[in-house]
Design brief:
The structure is a homodimer. Chain A has about 250 residues and is an alpha/beta fold. In chain A, about 35% of the residues lie in helices and about 25% in strands. In chain A, strands 2-1-3-8-7-6 form a 6-stranded mixed β-sheet, sandwiched between helices. A 4-stranded antiparallel β-sheet of chain A has the order 10-11-9-12. The longest helix of chain A has 17 residues. The first copy, chain A, is elongated, with a radius of gyration of 22 Å. The mean pLDDT of chain A is about 90.
C-alpha cells in the first residue's frame, strides 16, 4: 500500500565539464526516469562546479527540503574529485576509509596493478555512510542519511540506481499519457488550460515542435491516478476533435 | 581590450518536461558553449518546475550573484508557460504587452490565422523589458536588466543567443586543450594534481572512459591565458611520457 503523500527528490550534478559545455549531461533525464518508477518526484536540479563551498551550499539546501538528494560526479581518484569531502563538510563529519569499500577495491585492482594511494581515495566516505552496490566498477556509490552519492559516468550511475531499485520509500508512481496533434499550440491554448482546470489532479504539458515543414505539439497528461488520467486524455481528445483536429495516441 | 575581471552567468532551465525525464535538456551545453565564446563563465545551473514560487526564488538568487542570468523555457502561448509572469513577480513589476513584440506577432500570424488572444500572450513582457531579436520564430526573447529570457526549444534558443553574440560585456574567453591517454586515471592521479599545482591559472579536469574494452581518460586543461595553457599541456604530455604513456593531442 502506498500513501497519498508525495515523495520528492533533488538532484545535484557536480562537475566543471557540464558547466563548460564539454559534456552533455545525461544524468538528469536518467535519474528523473528512474525516480518516476519509484514513485518519487524529481522536484529540482542544480549543477555546480567542482568547488567545495558551492557543493556544501547546494547539498544543505536540497537535502533539507526534499525527501532524498542524489548527487552525480566527482567521486573518482583524481584531484578534481572532491564530492566526498564536500558532502562530509556539509554534514559536519570527517572522511574515513570504509573497510568494505576498501575490500571491494582491493579485489577489483588485484589483477590491475594493486591498490595505490590514488585508488584508495575511492574508498573514502563521509563518516557514518553506507555503500551502494555497483556490480561492474570497483568504485561503490555512497549513502549518507538521505543523500545518495552516485558516479558521474552515466552507465555507472545507472548501475548504482539499479542497486537502489525498490529500496526507497515512495508514493504512487507518476503516470503519463501523451496525445500528439498537427496543430499550432497557440490555436488550442485556451482549450488546453480549460481541460486541465476541469480535471483536478492532472497536469497537461504542451510541447510544440516543427517537423516536415509543419508545426504540431505533443500534450503530456500526468497524474498519479490512473482513472483520472484516462478521463482527462479522453476529454482532451474529444475537445481537439470538436475543434477539427485529430489526436494521435502516444504522441507524434 | 578585455579586463582580467571574471564575468559569470547562471542558467535557469524552467520546465516540468525536464524534471519528468520526458525531454533530455540540450540548453545547458548550448548556453555554456556560447558563453565560452563571449568570455563569460557559466557558474551554476538550476532546473525548476513550472511553479511561480520556485522560479521567483531561483531568479532572485541567481541574478543577484551573477553578472547575467539566462532562462530557457516557458514563454509559449499555453497555460503552462508562466515564465514571464514569474520573472515580473521576481522583479516586483507588472506584465505589459510590448508594442514591438505585438507588431512582430501580428506580422508573423498575418498569413497564419491572425493574432488570437492566446498568441498575444507571447507579446507579454515584464514592464521595462526589451526584446531579443529572433529571426525565425514570431516569439521574441526578452531582456530585463541582467536577465535574458530565452525559448525552451533548443534551436529557437540558439537563434536568440545568436542575436546576442558580441553584445554582452565579458572578459578573456576561456581557452581549453585536451590530451587523451589510454591509462586508468587512478594510475596517474597524483601526477595530475601536481601538474595542476605547478601551473597557476590552469585547471585540469580528468574524464575517464571505457572504450573498445580498454580504459582511458581525457585531460582537459583550461585557462584564460594562452601561453600558460600551452606550457601546462606541454608539461603534462612530458610527465605522461616519463611514466611510459603516450598523450594523444585533442583527446581520444
Amino acid at each position: 500500500m502506498t500513501s497519498d503523500r508525495i515523495w520528492t527528490a533533488a538532484l545535484l550534478v557536480i562537475g566543471d565539464e557540464i558547466l563548460s559545455g564539454r559534456t552533455q549531461d545525461k544524468n538528469i533525464a536518467q535519474v528523473a526516469q528512474w525516480l518516476n518508477g519509484e514513485g518519487i518526484r524529481l522536484g529540482e536540479v542544480r549543477v555546480v562546479a567542482d568547488r567545495e563551498e558551492a557543493i556544501v551550499e547546494a547539498v544543505n539546501t536540497l537535502r533539507a527540503r526534499n525527501d532524498y538528494l542524489f548527487t552525480t560526479g566527482g567521486i573518482g581518484p583524481t584531484h578534481d574529485d572532491i564530492t566526498v569531502d564536500a558532502i562530509a563538510a556539509a554534514h559536519g563529519v570527517s572522511v574515513v576509509v570504509h573497510p568494505a569499500a576498501r575490500a571491494v577495491l582491493e579485489k577489483h585492482y588485484e589483477t590491475r596493478g594493486g591498490l595505490t594511494d590514488a585508488r584508495l581515495r575511492m574508498a573514502r566516505v563521509p563518516d557514518g555512510a553506507t555503500l551502494i552496490e555497483n556490480a561492474m566498477s570497483g568504485a561503490p556509490g555512497i549513502r549518507l542519511g538521505n543523500v545518495f552519492i552516485l558516479a558521474g559516468v552515466p552507465h555507472i550511475a545507472a548501475l548504482m540506481l539499479q542497486g537502489l531499485t525498490g529500496k526507497l520509500e515512495g508514493g504512487h508512481p507518476m503516470l503519463s499519457r501523451t496525445l500528439g496533434c498537427w496543430v499550432p499550440e497557440s490555436e488550442i491554448a485556451d482549450m488546453l488550460g480549460a481541460t486541465e482546470r476541469a480535471h483536478a489532479g492532472c497536469q497537461i504539458g504542451s510541447y510544440p515542435f516543427f517537423r516536415e515543414g509543419r508545426v504540431g505539439a505533443n500534450f503530456v497528461v500526468r497524474s498519479t491516478d490512473a482513472a483520472g488520467l484516462d478521463a482527462c486524455v479522453e476529454d482532451l481528445a474529444g475537445r481537439l476533435a470538436a475543434l477539427g483536429h485529430t489526436a494521435v495516441a502516444d504522441g507524434i
